[in-house]
Amino acid sequence: MAATRILIAEDNDLVALTLEEQLKGLGYDVIGVARSGAEAIDLATRLNPDCIIMDIRMPEVDGTEAAARINAQQPTPILMLTAYTDRETIRRAENAGALGYLVKPVNEVELTPAINIALARFRELQDLRSKVDELADSLEARKVIERAKGILMQRLGLSERDAYERLRHRARDKRAKMKDIAQAIIEAEELLGS
User: pTM for this structure?
Assistant: First the structure.
């Protein structure tokens, strides 16, 4: 199994080097070190890391802003790194979509569990997003099919069941989705201007 690819975003050279050595010692593949929030966004886009460890206070673009931009472009598990534990800083990390929080100086024994939990939560979130998208698509398809059934019932005097069966058979015959057949019926109805 390939090593987890990690991008470090830390402007303090000593902290970045220490973290890089700790991660490599634990078997992770450190694919880059960003020294600013803007560089973190660029490297995340180009390198597609499995996980990012991002300092909250970064030059050019704040770490929380960089994390939010990265997640908007390409969702990635992000662990926020900071010397601050105040409520406001933690809230900013949460709002940026961070899946974990590490306090400096980072204890090496905390890294693996934090990374594993962030990766697991990220997979769960991706699965949930996928299910939400599937449900939204299914709901949209159902609305289109219901509207097409109504058109068939009105135009052809069919029962609801017969209209549904006609849609189903037509989709099967054309090897198309019922939603696509239903959409074609709706568009034809709009063209004829009922």
Answer: 0.69
pLDDT of residue 113: 87
* pLDDT score recorded for residue 53: 93
What pLDDT, on the 0 to 100 scale, is given for residue 171?
87
The helix/strand/coil state of 78 is strand
Pick the CATH number of 133-192 from 1.20.1510.10, 3.20.20.100, 1.10.10.10, 1.10.4080.10: 1.10.10.10
Q: Which two structure tokens, joined as six digits, stand for 134?
A: 């599937």
pLDDT of residue 181: 84
Domain 5-106 has CATH 3.40.50.2300: yes
Angle subtended at Cα 102 by Cα 69 and Cα 43, rounded to the nearest 5 degrees: 35
**50 and 5 Cβ atoms separated by less than 8 Å:** yes
Instruction: Give the three-class secondary structure for 169.
Output: helix
**Structure-token pair, residue 15:** 């902290």
- Cα–Cα distance between 7 and 152 in angstroms, integer? 56
Tokens 């992000």 found at: 78
In contact, 186 and 149? CB cutoff 8 Å? no
Segments in the chain below pLDDT 70 = 1, 194
Cβ neighbours of residue 175 closer than 8 Å, sequence gap 6 or more: none
Q: Please give the C-alpha separations between residue 58 and each of 12, 38, 104, 134, 139, in angstroms, as whole numbers.
A: 9, 9, 14, 38, 43
